[in-house]
Each structure stands twice: as structure tokens, then as C-alpha cells.
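ok so for the tutorial part 2 we go from a plain amino acid sequence to predicted C-alpha cells. step 1 is just haveing the sequence, like this:
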Amino acid sequence: MVARPDVDLEIVNRSTESLRNTTAHFDDSICEWGAVGKTFTAAYLFFPNPVSMDVELHWDESSGHRVEKIDLRKIYPAGKSGRLTFTVFDDRVEATFKPAE
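step 2 — the prediction. this is what the C-alpha cells look like for a chain of 101 residues:
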């Protein structure tokens, strides 16, 4: 039997807006954080679904709905346990992965 890796998903808000209805879409799976205030961090520990290499981050802010498409191939080795972090800035989203020790 193959074990599924333990992956924590985290969103860090470094923008000047509070984020609402914040979600990450991995193929057919969705991680929901909801509201993430300015300077706040929200985490989903042990995401129970597969993490695909293509993810869409969705959120609402005062100017409307935003979507960022992110390719994880350069930072996330499929099948590895660890923490996947999305940091939202006013002009971009950065994704990082820290493998479990």
C-alpha cells in the first residue's frame, strides 16, 4: 500500500487588502480558507486530497474577484510531505514548499 504524503497548505496575506472566500483549486479538489485578513496567515493541516501541479488560487477583495494560476512543478516534488505556502501580495502570488524533516 502506498501512503499519501502529508501536505499542509498555508496562505499568507501580505497584500493591503483583506481576502475573502479564499480557495485553492487542485484539479477536482478545493482547499477553503475563507477570510484571511491583512498580515494574517491561515493553514489547512494535512490536506486530505491530492495536490496537483497546476493550482488556481481564488479570492475576493474590494476591487472584485481575483484568480492566480500557479505551476508548482519547479517547487513541489510530487509525493513529498511538507508545507506548501501561497503568499499573496498586491501584485503577485508566490508559492514555496518546505519539505517535512
